[in-house]
Write a structure and sequence with these properties.
This protein is α/β, with parallel strands linked by helices. The chain contains 14 helices and 19 strands. It has an eleven-stranded mixed sheet, with helices on both faces. It has a four-stranded mixed sheet with strand order 18-17-16-19, covered by helices on one side. The longest helix has 22 residues, at 39-60. The radius of gyration is 23 Å and the shape is globular. The structure holds zinc ion.
Length: 455
């Protein structure tokens, strides 16, 4: 759609900038310039932004007024001052969200947002326009590493059907097509029989890239491989977002679509955090956020290369600052530079969600990936989901490949689970035909439903 792209770039965006004061392209240029600055300059810039934010929070945000003295020091580094404030869990934030709204903020400048509550705590919060635009700019910067620009045609393979009535759906699709140059498909609505037709639609749209949830892209890629079909047009990238991208998913997607598979790491309540470069490393947008990694129980900092709970401080959200916000993800930082030349720091590993971590009867943590590894090594299961309701009570849902399934293999799986979690667990095994994604469209293999012990 070269005409649509032209109109978006040369008419729609300039108009948005003039009429609405949209600054995404300005922020994008800033982020672009910053990516080649020496590391020391990047750190200084982040430190300065953080200092300004802390001052604002202490002066104008009721929840942080009590820390005014801690945050006041002119001499100390902002990053050191920040550590004097306790981290902010979703639960604590939800007890009194209004306390995090900056005073004197005009309601018209607030953009409401929320996270789904299918698992964990649903959270409602506000952003301001500069924050949202900084997220967008960061995404465009990440995409630019693959030669993708604003207005380039994109096919989105989504996880959940859109919950819109017919009229809304029509308006939505027209907007998607004309203002974003995007075609939306839901992976869970696709049947294998329809696949050739869908591929034809994608081909005629000529996307430069595909974009979607890891599980949805994987489902789509698997269907293509099973039917022996190819897309037949070159893609600059397939961008996976919103979920952990597992190595087996990456491999299947790359094989089916013959394009680089790119991981985007962000969250509704944490912003656009990191993007994968051509060398395969995740670069943190340190001009937009300040990250810390702490022990999940003691909340003490852990060194780079060790896994811990991620704390995010958004550097631009002056409307509703959330300092050291516990996003619920377990990650590792790195101090290694990346050979690609981008100077933004590297996120060494994204382990998964904190509520993917199971608790064994011996009191050890077992990461959800453990179960994934177990099942992936077996022949007979298409997919699975394991839910830990209480430390000793679990449900295991299995979708079989009927032709390959064997009870002995299932026994082996159950033994593996007992070895990790304890022999005394009660495990309810259910054979199901399908495991639908959660209401948000995300698919989760491992879900823990109770809180970990507090420090
Ligand atoms: Zn890199």
């Amino acid at each position: 759609m070269p005409l649509t792209r032209f109109l978006i770039r040369h008419v729609h965006w300039p108009l948005m900038e003039q009429w609405k004061g949209n600054r995404i392209r300005t922020y994008l240029r800033e982020l672009e310039q910053a990516q080649s600055l020496p590391v020391s300059q990047l750190q200084a810039s982040q430190e300065q932004k953080l200092k300004q934010l802390l001052r604002h929070a202490a002066d104008r945000v009721p929840a942080y007024r009590a820390y005014r003295e801690e945050l006041a020091s002119e001499e100390e580094m902002a990053s050191a001052l920040l550590r004097r404030i306790p981290s902010l869990s979703k639960r604590r934030f939800n007890e009194n969200p209004e306390a995090y709204l900056a005073q004197d903020i005009h309601p018209s400048s607030l953009i409401p947002n929320r996270t789904g509550g299918s698992t964990g705590e649903p959270t409602r919060f506000y952003l301001d326009r500069p924050t949202v635009e900084h997220y967008e700019a960061a995404r465009w910067l990440g995409l630019s590493w693959y030669g993708i620009g604003i207005g380039d045609p994109c096919v989105m393979i989504w996880g959940s059907p859109l919950e819109l009535n017919q009229r809304q759906a029509f308006t939505f699709r027209v907007k998607e097509r004309l203002l974003k140059n995007r075609l939306l498909l839901s992976a869970y609505d696709l049947s294998e029989a329809e696949l050739p037709q869908i591929l034809k639609r994608i081909r005629s749209f000529q996307p430069h890239y595909l974009y979607g949830y890891a599980s949805a892209l994987h489902l789509f890629a698997e269907m293509m491989l099973r039917r022996g079909l190819t897309l037949g047009i070159p893609l600059k990238a397939v961008v996976s977002t919103a979920e952990i991208l597992h190595p087996y998913q990456r491999e299947t997607i790359a094989r089916a679509l013959d394009a680089p598979v790119v991981n985007e790491y962000g969250a509704r309540d944490g912003g656009m955090i990191a993007y994968q470069c051509r060398e395969g490393r995740m670069h943190i947008f340190s001009e937009n956020c300040y990250l810390e990694v702490v022990d999940p129980v003691s909340r003490q900092p852990v060194p780079p290369g060790e896994s811990g709970l991620l704390l995010v401080t958004d550097l631009h959200n002056y409307a509703m600052p959330r300092l050291r916000y516990e996003l619920g993800d377990v990650v590792q930082l790195s101090t290694e530079p990346c050979p690609c030349g981008i100077q933004y720091p590297v996120l060494a590993h994204i382990d998964g969600r904190e509520d993917d971590m199971f608790l064994s009867l011996r009191g050890h943590y077992v990461h959800g990936h453990y179960f994934n590894h177990l099942v992936r090594g077996m022949e007979g299961f298409r997919t699975f989901q394991i839910i830990q309701h209480e430390p000793d009570r679990l449900t295991l849902k299995l979708v079989k490949y009927p032709e390959k399934y064997s009870p002995a293999e299932e026994e082996q799986l159950i033994t593996g689970i007992r070895q990790a979690l304890g022999d005394a667990i009660r495990l309810d095994v259910q054979h199901v035909d399908e495991i639908p994604p959660s209401a948000s469209g995300k698919f989760r293999y491992a879900i823990r439903q109770f809180s970990l012990p507090s420090p």
